[in-house]
Design a protein that fits this description.
By secondary structure, this protein is of the alpha/beta class. The protein is 34% helix and 25% strand. The chain has helices at 9-15, 36-48, 62-74, 106-109, and strands at residues 2-3, 23-24, 51-54, 77-86, 92-101. The protein has a five-stranded mixed β-sheet.
């Protein structure tokens, strides 16, 4: 599970008793400054990761979200929302999503 915003990891660790394999996306996601092993790790997260993040009104780190979305698009992927989780007031608070290859994109196949 790849976490795309601040304030989510601790709750997942607590609620699932630290049994989930969690990773945090950061500003360097698929950036030119990453080493080749880091870029491969991030690409694998794009291809097979289950992601969780906040919806726009709850988002803490907009820049990270924007960087991840731009990097995914550049790599030939687009976000596919699987589920939106509401807070106790019924407002959309969390998104569970994955990245899927853009139809006809040669980049996503590499």
């Amino acid at each position: 599970i790849v976490v795309a915003d601040w304030g989510i990891v601790n709750q997942l660790v607590l609620l699932h008793r630290n049994r989930l394999k969690l990773a945090m996306a950061d500003d360097n996601f698929l950036s030119a400054g990453e080493s080749e092993p880091e870029r491969q790790r991030d690409r694998l997260r794009l291809q097979s990761g289950l992601w969780v993040g906040h919806t726009v009104p709850y988002r803490e780190l907009n820049q990270i979200n924007e960087n991840v979305m731009k990097a995914a698009a550049t790599a030939g992927f687009q976000k596919q929302t699987l589920r939106v989780v509401e807070d106790t007031h019924g407002s959309p608070a969390f998104e569970i999503f994955r990245f899927v290859p853009v139809a006809g994109s040669a980049r996503a196949a590499n």
